[in-house]
Amino acid sequence: MPATAMNHFTILTDNVDETIKFYNEFLGLESGERPPFDFPGAWLYAGNTAVLHVIGGRALPESREGVIDHMAFSATGLIETIKKLERHEIDYSLRQVRPSDPWQLFFFDPSGAKVELDYPSDEPTPKK
């Protein structure tokens, strides 16, 4: 039985509120319905889909590296996102492999998870 779609990512954090605020502000994800688990956390939604599960209240691993390198989302508003990252002094990298490929914007969330936002190739880009 093949997988038919990506369902969600789960990240661990030592600051649930800061993590929720970050994903709300930078990705536009909204907190939504979550089962009544016995640990702190949130489910963050893109539209009607809970794409990111945030779990708090657990010890974070000392090494935050693992076999998953990053999570990627489709997005719009590249210039606005870059300006917001700069206002918050969040380091980022922007690349486009070929002119017809999407723009890839990489940065890290407050817990150290690597985030990629993919923008259409015809999105306006910041002036260098």
In summary, what is this structure?
The protein is α/β, with parallel strands linked by helices and about 130 residues long. It has helices at about 15-25, 80-85; strands spanning about 10, 30, 40-45, 50-55, 70-75, 95, 105-110, 115-120.
List the topology elements.
Layout: E1 9-12, H1 16-27, E2 30-32, E3 41-46, E4 49-55, E5 71-74, H2 78-87, E6 93-95, E7 103-108, E8 114-119
Parallel strand pairs: 1-4, 5-8
Antiparallel strand pairs: 2-3, 3-4, 6-7, 7-8
Polypeptide structure, described:
With 128 residues, the chain is an alpha/beta fold. The chain has two helices and eight strands; from the N terminus they run E-H-E-E-E-E-H-E-E-E. Strands 1-4-3-2 form a four-stranded mixed sheet, covered by helices on one side. A hairpin with a 7-residue loop joins strand 6 (93-95) and strand 7. The chain is globular, with a radius of gyration of 16 Å. The model has no long low-confidence stretch (mean pLDDT 89).
Main sheet overview: 4 strands, mixed
Strand order of the largest sheet: 1-4-3-2
Distance between the termini: 48 Å
Summed up, the helix count is 2
The tally of domains stands at 1
CATH homologous superfamily descriptor: 2,3-Dihydroxybiphenyl 1,2-Dioxygenase, domain 1
Low-confidence stretches: none
